[in-house]
Specification:
The chain has a single domain, classed as Arc Repressor Mutant, subunit A (Orthogonal Bundle). Helices cover 69% and strands 8% of the residues. It has a 3-stranded antiparallel sheet. It is globular.
Length: 151
């Protein structure tokens, strides 16, 4: 059996280091791009929905959003319908940052797929989509079972 997790983790850590270097002169951390994408695509999304969508625990989401709010990328408001829910909205700064983030991620994708033919890239992308789908489905099933146990 191939050592898939070793390769996936190694690629992830290298990507994290690369993003850290690329973003060193900004007020963004290496993982903040995922929040910017999510909030810009889904203005008014709840913090809990962000945590579920990104598979990140709620305290890390809260901490990252506090950083982004402090630096003017998002605003957070209590839901009028349910005061326990915090909704997150992108600011103009977040929208203005999207092209930089997209370009940065495109550059990384080009780096890690250097030397792939168009056909190999298509096959690799399809396979990685399946890997991600399987991981997400399994994680959702686990979370659902845990939620059922908590009740």
């Amino acid at each position: 059996m191939p050592k898939l997790m070793r390769y996936i983790n190694s690629t992830s850590r290298c990507g994290s280091a690369w993003r850290t270097e690329k973003l060193k002169n900004t007020d963004l951390g290496e993982s903040h791009h995922t929040y910017i994408f999510t909030v810009c695509r889904h203005p008014g999304i709840s913090q809990e929905a962000i945590a579920k969508r990104l598979f990140i625990n709620k305290s890390n989401v809260t901490r990252s959003l506090a950083h982004l709010e402090k630096h003017g990328y998002v605003t957070r408001e209590r839901s009028a319908a349910d005061k326990r829910v915090t909704l997150v909205y992108p600011t103009e700064k977040a929208f203005d940052t999207l092209p930089l983030v997209r370009q940065m991620l495109s550059e990384w994708n080009n780096i890690i797929t250097r030397g792939f033919s168009a056909e190999e890239l298509e096959i690799f992308t399809e396979m990685m989509e399946r890997v991600a789908h399987n991981a997400k489905e399994y994680t959702r099933q686990m979370q659902s079972e845990q939620d059922g146990e908590a009740e």
